[in-house]
Structure formats: structure tokens, C-alpha cells
Backbone:
């Protein structure tokens, strides 16, 4: 078999050729760095293998406190693998879920939290698991957008917002005295307003397309599921318009009565008062 260099076009072996000094030094440096890296990884594995549950948990906790999420995740996963039934296992699951959350790994965080809730339903910190579930879903769709453009949150997909609302609601239902309830309640107010606004965006779209039944259904859903929001008068207005177009005067009048009683200064109410018939204009008394 011919040597490889003879098959290379234009190449010719030079007798007595030597490696350049600079190239040889560079090659030795690369080999040395690779060797150190391999030995370092082996050393880390040996340390993990010889570490106790206390040491692994403390290492993960220090990394978590410093915001070193990857290092914390590695320590907590090693702890759960080597000591699946130790006294640190339960708390490490919550800490690991929090690290996943901060790393933006939503699915991993939610899966771990669901497993924690199923496995340890009576754990003293299970209320935190419900709260963190809501927070994961909340930040997924609201976090940065709420800070940049609060008015545009309702334009986003609402699936994770609905999940967050349900998670926070479950926390308040199961643990009304939890220390996480006040924050969850405030977030629920924002979520309820955003979800109601989204329903009204869809209702207005249907109204513009003359799909009056669909518009009325969306408006009624917003009133029933998300009551007492800034969108309540808008929902009543859509109901009045849709029922009027559907020739359902009783339902249309009922919607208008509720709107007038609860929101007498609403622009729609005031606009209707100003639009008087020619016969009304002839009568000088209110």
C-alpha cells in the first residue's frame, strides 16, 4: 500500500524534514491542556462519588445562592441520583426546580414540581411547589413583556397565563394562610385582567366579522369567568350590540340596564343618551 503522502496532489516528502519549533510547542500545549481537562473531569467525578449527601446539598446551595445555576443543577442531580431517599432529597427537588426555572427550562421545572406534589403531598413546603408552578407559567408569558409593554400582554398566547392563574388559585384554595398567597393574589389580579382583555379582543373580532353569536359567547364567558375587571363594561357593550343584531331585544335591553346601573359614566351609555330621536328633541324637559 502506497504511503498517504504520495496520493496528495502536488505534495512531496522532504528528506530530513522536522517539525517547526513553534508548531511543536503548540502541539505540546494542546496535549497538556487536554490532559489536564480530562484529569480535572475525573477529579470532579471522584469528588462527587466520595461526597456525602450533606456535602452535595451544601455545594448545590452555595451555587444556588451565587446564581451559578448549572453548577447547582449538577450538584442537586448528583444528590438525587446517589441518595434518592435521603433527608435532603425532598428539599433538593424544590431547589432543583427553582434552578431550572431561573435557567429558563420551563418543562423540566414543571415536571419536577408535579412529581414533588404527587410524591410529597403532605410536605411542609408543598405550598411553595404550587406557588413556583404558577411563577414558572407566569414568567413564561408575562415577565419581560409586562415590564416592556404592559398593554400588550393580552395579545400573546394565553395558555400559560391560564395555567398560572389556575396554579395560583389552587395555592390559595389549598393553603389560604401560606406566606406566598399575598404575592399570588396580586399576580392573579393582573392575570385575570389580561385574560379578560384577551377574551374581549376576540369578541370584538367576531363582532367585526358579524359573527354575533360567537361574539356574545366570548363576552358572556369573560363576565362569568373573569368578573369585576376593567373589561366588564366592554363585555356588556358587546352583548348589547350582538343581541341587538340578533334581534333579541330582551337580552339586549338587559345588558344595557346592567351597564347603565353599574357604569353610568361609560362612553357608550353617554353616547346613547346624546342620540335622542327628533320627537325627544321637541320636548324641552328631561
Residues:
Amino acid at each position: 500500500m502506497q504511503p498517504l503522502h504520495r496520493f496528495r496532489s502536488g505534495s512531496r516528502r522532504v528528506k530530513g524534514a522536522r517539525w517547526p519549533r513553534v508548531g511543536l510547542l503548540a502541539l505540546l500545549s494542546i496535549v497538556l491542556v487536554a490532559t489536564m481537562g480530562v484529569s480535572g473531569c475525573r477529579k470532579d467525578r471522584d469528588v462527587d462519588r466520595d461526597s456525602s449527601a450533606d456535602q452535595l446539598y451544601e455545594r448545590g446551595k452555595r451555587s444556588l445562592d451565587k446564581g451559578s445555576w448549572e453548577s447547582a443543577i449538577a450538584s442537586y442531580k448528583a444528590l438525587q441520583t446517589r441518595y434518592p431517599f435521603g433527608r435532603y432529597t425532598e428539599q433538593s427537588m424544590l431547589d432543583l426546580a427553582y434552578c431550572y426555572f431561573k435557567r429558563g427550562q420551563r418543562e423540566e421545572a414543571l415536571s419536577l414540581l408535579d412529581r414533588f406534589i404527587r410524591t410529597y403531598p403532605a410536605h411542609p413546603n408543598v405550598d411553595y411547589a404550587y406557588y413556583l408552578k404558577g411563577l414558572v407559567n407566569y414568567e413564561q408569558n408575562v415577565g419581560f413583556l409586562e415590564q416592556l409593554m404592559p398593554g400588550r400582554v393580552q395579545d400573546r398566547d394565553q395558555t400559560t397565563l391560564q395555567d398560572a392563574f389556575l396554579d395560583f388559585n389552587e395555592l390559595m384554595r389549598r393553603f389560604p394562610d401560606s406566606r406566598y398567597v399575598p404575592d399570588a393574589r396580586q399576580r392573579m389580579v393582573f392575570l385575570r385582567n389580561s385574560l379578560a382583555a384577551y377574551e374581549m379582543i376576540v369578541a370584538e373580532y367576531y363582532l367585526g366579522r358579524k359573527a354575533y353569536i360567537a361574539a356574545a359567547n366570548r363576552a358572556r364567558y369573560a363576565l362569568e369567568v373573569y368578573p369585576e375587571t376593567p373589561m366588564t363594561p366592554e363585555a356588556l357593550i358587546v352583548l348589547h350590540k350582538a343581541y341587538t343584531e340578533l334581534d333579541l331585544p330582551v337580552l339586549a335591553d338587559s345588558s344595557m340596564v346592567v351597564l347603565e346601573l353599574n357604569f353610568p359614566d361609560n362612553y357608550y351609555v353617554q353616547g346613547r343618551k346624546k342620540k335622542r330621536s327628533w320627537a325627544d328633541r321637541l320636548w324641552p324637559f328631561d
Summary: Confidence is low (pLDDT under 50) at residues 1-17, 38-47, 144-155, 278-286. The CA atoms of residues 210 and 277 lie 26 Å apart. The chain has 14 helices and no strands.
